[in-house]
Each structure stands twice: as C-alpha cells, then as structure tokens.
Amino acid sequence: MNSNRSDKTSGKAEDKADVQQGTLALMILKTLESMGPLHGYGIARRIEQISNHLLSLNYGTLYPALLKLEQEGSVASDWGVSDNNRKAKYYTLTRAGRRQLARETHEWEQTAAIVARFLSSEGEHS
Amino acid sequence: MKSLRALLVRLAGLFNKWKRDSELTVELHSHLQMHIDENVRRGMTPAEARRQALIELGGVEQAKEQYRARRGLPLLETLAQDVRYGLRVLGKSPGFTVVAVLTLALGIGANTAIFSMVDSILLRPSPVPNAGQVATLATEEIGGTYSALFSYPDFQDIRSQSSALFSDIAASMDFHPMDGLSIDGNLQPIWTAYVSANFFQAMGVKPDLGNFIEPAPQQSLDAEPVLVLGYAYWKAHFGGDPQVIGKSVVLNGQHPVTIIGVAPRNFHGISSLVDIQGYLPLGMASVAGDAGRDFLIDRKSADLGIYTRFRSGATLASAKPALAVIGQRLAAQYPDADKWMALLAYPLVPDSPVDDPSGMIIVQVAGAFFLALAALVLLLACLNVANLLLARASAREREMALRAAVGARRIRLVRQLLTESLLLALLGCAGGIALGLLGSRWLGSINLRGNLPLVLDFQFDWRVFAYAFGAALLTGIVVGIAPALRATRGNLNDLLHESGRATGSVSRRRKRSLLVIAQVGGSLMLLIVAGLFVRSMRTVERSNLGFDANHVLNFTLDSHEAGFNEAQARDFFRTLLPRVRALPGIDVASLAFAVPMDYTLDLAEELNIEGYQPPKDQGEPAVGYNAVTPQYFETMRIPLLRGRGVLDSDTQAAQHVAVINEAMAEKYWHGLDPIGRRFMMAKAPKQPIEVVGIVKNCRCENIRGPIEPYMYLAFAQQYHTPVTLQVRTSLPLATVNHEIVGLVHSLAAVVPVSNIQTMTEGLDTLRGFLLYQIGAALAGSLGFLGLTLAVVGVYGVVSCAAAQRTHEIGIRMALGARPVDVLTMVLGQGLVIVGAGLFVGILAAFAIARLAGNFLSGVSPLDPLTYASASVMLVVVALLACYIPARRAMRVDPMVALRYE
What we know:
The structure holds two protein chains of two kinds.
Chain A: H1 23-35, E1 38-39, H2 40-50, H3 59-71, E2 75-81, E3 87-93, H4 95-125
Antiparallel strand pairs in A: 1-3, 2-3
Chain B: H1 2-12, H2 17-41, H3 46-57, H4 60-71, H5 74-92, H6 94-123, E1 134-141, E2 146-147, H7 152-161, E3 166-173, E4 179-183, E5 186-190, E6 192-195, H8 199-203, E7 209-210, E8 226-229, H9 231-238, E9 248-251, E10 255-262, E11 278-281, H10 284-287, E12 305-310, H11 316-333, E13 340-347, H12 357-395, H13 397-405, H14 410-444, H15 462-487, H16 492-497, H17 506-542, E14 552-557, H18 566-582, E15 586-592, E16 604-609, E17 622-628, H19 632-636, E18 640-643, E19 656-661, H20 662-668, E20 678-681, E21 684-695, E22 710-714, E23 723-729, H21 733-747, E24 753-758, H22 759-762, H23 770-804, H24 806-814, H25 819-852, H26 864-890, H27 894-899
Parallel strand pairs in B: 6-11, 8-10, 17-22, 19-21
Antiparallel strand pairs in B: 1-2, 1-12, 1-13, 3-6, 3-12, 4-5, 4-9, 7-10, 8-11, 9-10, 14-23, 14-24, 15-23, 16-17, 16-20, 18-21, 19-22, 20-21
C-alpha cells in the first residue's frame, strides 16, 4: 500500500528536496530505532538534521505517514510530556516495526547497490 | 496482511471522529509550538519565529484534511454523507418522497409479483441433481402423434437393451385415479405415483427422512406394501412428525402399507406443477386397484413414464441412433401394441409443467409477455419519478450552483443527486417487495378448483429479491441520471445572478412533455392489452358451450378411495341415485364419469369403427368419452337430436350403447345414418357398442379450438372412479349440500365427497375459463396501474407548467384575456400531450397485440372497440387531470400574479 503522494513542494527553498515516495516511512522507522520514543516534531527535526537540512517535512506529509505506520502496526503512539513541558504524542517502534525496518533496510541497500553499480557501469562505456 | 489490518483500522476510523479530530489538533498545535520554541532559541523574535514555523509547516487545515483522508475511507465517508444529506432532503419534502416512493413501489411490486410466478414455474432449478443428464422417453406413433407412456413389458425391453446408454432407467405411473389413505381411521385423498424401485436413485435424490423404496434383488417387480410420503403431505397430514417411519396406514380402504420414508422438500416428482404426495412400489399398482391385474404382462396397457439418466459421456444427441434402433426393433417385434415410428428422448430440464414441448413454449411466451407488461409499468413509474425529479432539478439549480461555487466538483454533485434517486429507488424497492409479496400471495391463492395437489408456492427465493433489487438499482440510475446531469450543467454565473424565480427553460419543459407523451402512450398500450384480455374473457364466458351450467351442482364421489370394489360400487350408485332424485327440490339427477372442463382426467379410447377406414398414415382414431346414467342429458340440458339417450334398460348385460355428438357422426359416418352402427373400443375388442342417439355438439374438453368427436356411453356398462353426481335444482348449493352429503354417508359412511361446487364454478378450471380469468385479472391490474401512473404524470406536468406560467397568465389577464381563454390555453397544452401520446400508444399496441393474440380467443388483436374505448377512457381521465390545474390557472388574480415576482 502506497502512502498518499505529497506533491506540495515547499516553495521557500529550491535546494530542499521533497521526501521521496516510500522512503519517508523507512526514515521514520530508522529514527525511532536510533532515538527511542519520540514525538512528531522530534522526528521531523531529526530527519532534517540527518539529511543536512536538504529535506523538509511539513505536517501534511509527516502526520499521514505516521498514521499509516500506526495503522499498519509498525509504530504505536501514546501521549506524554516533552522536555519543555508540552503535551505531545510519542511514537514507539513496535516489534512488527523492527521487522519492517530490517526488511526495508535490506531491500533499500540492495536497490541502492544495484543502482550504483548500474550507474558506474554506464560511466565505463561512455 | 498489513494492508488488511490498515483497512480494518481505517474502517474503525470512520467512528469517533470528533475525539480523533481534537487529538490531532492538539498534536499539530504542540508540533507548531515546539517549532516556534526552537526558532526563538535560535534568536528570532517570537513573531518572526511563529511566521517562519508556519511557512515551513504548511497549512494546518490542509494537513488535517490529508490526515483525515488517510484516517478513514474517504469514499465511504462521502457516501455516508450523501446518504445522510439525501435522507434529510427527502424528509424535507415528504409529499414528493411519498409520491415517488409509492410510484416506484407499485412498479417494482408488480414486477416482483409476476417475476416470482415466472421464477417458480420456469426458473427454479430442478431438485434433481445433474438434471441435464436426465431424460424422459417418448414415442412418435403412426399418425404423427406423440406418446410418453409405455407398458411394463416395453419398459423391461427398453431397459435390457439400453444399459450401454443409461446408468439408470426408471418407470413411474403418475396417471391413475386419486387414492385414499386412512390415517388412524381418518380417510384422506392422496395423489400417488407408482414407481420402479430405482426411481429415486435415477432422480438422484436422497430421502429427507427414512429410506426410499429399495431395488429388489434380480430386479424382480417389487410389490412390498411400503409408502414414501411427499414432504408437503407429511407436513400437512402428519405434522412433520419424524415418528411416522414404520407407521402403518391403509391404502384405498383395505391395503395396509408401511411408511418407510419422506421425499426431500422441493422434490415434487417429475412434473413441476403437480405435487406427488406418496410414492408406492410399481407392483402395488394392481394390488391397490390402480392398474389392471395383468398390466405387468399386457403390452397394450401403456401407463408408465420412463425416466433415464445418461451414463457419463452419453448425451441426448449421441443416444439418438441407439434409441431409434431399439424403437424399431420393438415396433417390428410387437406390431400390434407398439405402433411406433421412433423412440425419442427429451430433456427433463427445463422441467416442463406442460407435457408437450409446444405447450412449454406457450408458458414461456406467456411468462415473457407478462414480464414485459410489468416492465412497462415499471418504465412508466420511472418516467413519472424522472419527471418529478426534473421538476425538482430546476428548483434546486441554485443550490447546486452554490455548492459548485464553493468548490464541489460536478462529479461530486452528480454523485449526490444519484444517491438521492437511488435512495428513492431503494425505499421503493422495500415497498415493492412488500406489495410483491401481497401480489404473489394473491396469485398463489387463485382457486384452481380440483383435487390435484398443484405446486403453486410462489415463494420469494433469492432470485426474486435479486430481481427486485436489480430493478431498483437500475430504476435509481435511470431515473436520476438525466435530472442529475441537468441540474449540475448550469452556468454558475447566470444561475447565481438570476432572480429567485425558478424559470424552467422551454427545452426542459419540452423534455418533460416528451416524457409524459411516452407515458400516455405506454399506458394506453397497457390499457388496450388489458381491454383485449377482458373482452376475450367475456366472449369466452358468454360463448355457447352447448350445455346449461346454471343450477347444476356437482358432487364428486370416490368409492375407490373408500376401497369399494366394482360390484360394491355399482350397488352403491344404484341405491344412491333414486334416493337423490327423491330429495325435495331436486329436478333431475345423474351420474357421470367426467364433468366438462375437468382437467384431472382425460378419458379417451381408441376405437375400431365398422365401415370406417382411417387414413393410411394414421392409426385407429381415439375419441374422448364420458359414461352417464339416464337423465344426464336432461341435467346438462344437452339437446338430443336423433335416436334416444341412455336408458335404465342399458344394463351391464344388455347390448352396449353409445350416444355420440354431431362431430363424431360427421367425421366417422359422413353422409350416413350412424344410428344402429357399431364400433369397438381397443381395450374391449369383443364388446361391440351400438350407436343409439346423436346429441348436439357441446364443449366438454376445451374452451378453444374445434369441437372434437365425443361420445357418451352407458354408466352401467362401464366402470371408472371417481364419478360425479350432478343435480339440477333451483335451490342454492348451501341448502342442498348437507342433504346430499348426509344421504351419501347414510348409505356408505366411508365414501368421501369432494369438489362440491356449482357447475358454473366447475368451469373455472385450467381447461375452462381460469386462464382467461387470470390473464384478464393480471392484464387488468397492470393496465389500471399504468393508467394511474399516466394520470399522475399528466397532472404533474400540466399543473407545473401552469404554475410556472402564473406570471404570464397574470399579464394576459391584465391585458384582457378572459378566464375561458386561459382555461383553453392550459387545456390545449394538455391536449397536445395526450393526443401525441394516443398516437404513440395505438401504434405500440398494434405491435404488442400480435403477441397477445396467442392467448386471446374470440376477439381480434386489432379489435376496434377495445382500441376506441381504451383511448376514450384515457383521454377522459387525462383531460380531467388537465382540467384541475387549468381551473386553478383560470382563477388566477392578475394583481396577485403580477406581485408574485
């Protein structure tokens, strides 16, 4: 099942890329794995930092993706209080989520390797 | 798995929306706040921090919308929205809703009722598994007639020679007198079949309870006194008690039989119209007196139907040559008995309620014909509702424009309007099914007047519901699509700027008028067809039958059911008749084997007529007969033309005599005097019968077609059960009933008296008037429905047009038009519509009446009187429908109308 396409490019900065289809879920899962339970804002921040601020997440992209993961059982959510005392919903990776992360990581690495090899071989011929 | 889980969660997401929405708001809010906090920490002013955060995060409302779309199932949600909104809209205009739903309910109900009948007769699957492999055998006889009856020796020969073709070959004797079953001393009539032991195996059915008749070793004929009950009979007479297995009952007064099983619920035997109530072993037939003593060896007593199941791989077509060989071999071996040209196999499915294939076609055509009429009624109903919706569409144009203006796409609006019309249709469907149930109960309750247990349960099975539902869906779309497209087409700008008055363009009014023309035409067609059926029924009922059915009462007496043998029965009837004649108020009384138009019994016999040579390619002629006591011709008032009637002196020992009808005299003794001439019956070749009298032709066997040769033998010289006592009296049935039944029971307490009715009632049988009455009633009710719908349609269009022209009428009147001018103007518009409809309807009726001609008798399908009277009726009613709005328009006060702006 594909998540909804987020076709709104943030008009502010041309250098900021839109999140690629299907990769956002992987990034969220990875973030939760490395950071532990986290709220939506934290997830967005972390993804932006890791991407070196090349990616920006608006609400309309992030929350439906989180909802989808929750519906699929990969993450669970619960209300909590943030460091600076704000009420926030914390997302946790479930066991199913870990399995999904492992699987998708593997698939993604494979794809990346193939594409990389493909591109380099292409270079050799030209 | 994952997506299934997500789907379930999303389904759950449809509920509890408010709480989830508020949670999302909180979550988004805290996200924004954290972002702002972060920006502030980086050194922005609070206002700048907020601005940047908002820019980066995008619109909150859009995000919520995207979130919601993911949370629930948007398609379902908008559907629920549409349904809720649609219900509210319909609830707001209850008048419109009630009329539309009722209209559709009538249309769908008529269809459902008629479909349930067609379904139960033509479509319901045979209870026989793999019925496609089951065939029934028939022979083509010399002379081109077909027979599906075989003798027992024939059955044995065919069975032994066809084992390569059939895995099972079974015989069943269905046509014999009604039997009586004494259950705990209580005598009940029972319609039985005598079946060969492998009958149920060949049919492939399993007993509902107990066992079936088992094949005996060495295929010897089984005469074990056992009985398998039909399901309905078991329910009716044993209360569905499972303890009946092993119970002993008495057949025909003196033959104890043991109940060993119950047939499955929907298995009625071979015919789909007659319910076999009990199955007995074939060998019991002669024991119980339903077949001759020697029917096991007599090749001439052909009473058995043969049913076969093909071996896998064999088909009707592949079996044909082999069957032909068997047939020819037997015909050559036994030329006296088996006068066969060919041995044929017919498929059992579609299991035919009528014996011959051509009869089946009539049933199918009749079914299709009435379904078509019912569909026409539904179409008229659709037109009506479409018309109403069109009218509403103009009133709702602004609403639609407004919704379009705030961003609804056209497809969304069309979907909304279609949802509304589908809602109407579904409500109509519910009403229609209720009406249909009533209708089919009425159809099922038609009194078929006879002892035959007919299978007429027009149950609503899934097919009927599917049909009604499908009709409703189709109706909803057909009715809704045009108005929906119409209402959403308008140019936003124009519409929103228009004044509040609903205008209704000329083209729209024209479209509505066209609909009404189609409606008037369709209903005229229905009316004409109905008229033809009613006229046909009247003609048939008034036709001269050749006898006088008035003041004749019938009582059927069955000494066979009571277990009387021939001598006992003769004694009983000899004593009974003078006692009946002596009762006060009885003018004449007589006994007869058959009454006119009785369909339970077909007495006919092959004759060998002295001096008559049948045409070369034909066998001996078969002639229908009755056997009657003296005074019969007085009771029935059949005029004697020459010679004498049956007399008391025509006893068993005397010369056998016959009184013949004119047709018989004409056909077999053309130009000669038949009196004193002789003939023999094929079953009694040594007993010559002398013609002693000629009576006028009368219709005894059929209401239609030419009158066939027919003869009346002497009651004392023949034997048959049951017989019917007929009395002519001016007293009503209720008065005489008790005396006669009391008299019968004082002489023989066990003899059942049945079919107590007047002769006039006795004519309402399948052979008599019944089909005409059913046809007339069906067509009449459909015609009436059509007329009602057309009137509603005409009224709707004319009154709506008049209302829309109130302003114009006001101006006209202000400028000096008289009320009469207004009246004629409005009426004129209606007249044009009705006139055009008449034209269309008459043309359509010409077309369909040809089809109806198949079922009509005594009236031409182009009968001008029917056409004229139906047209006049429609015009009068339609004009009345126009007159009401016209009068209202005439009374318009110009001042009020002008201010009405």
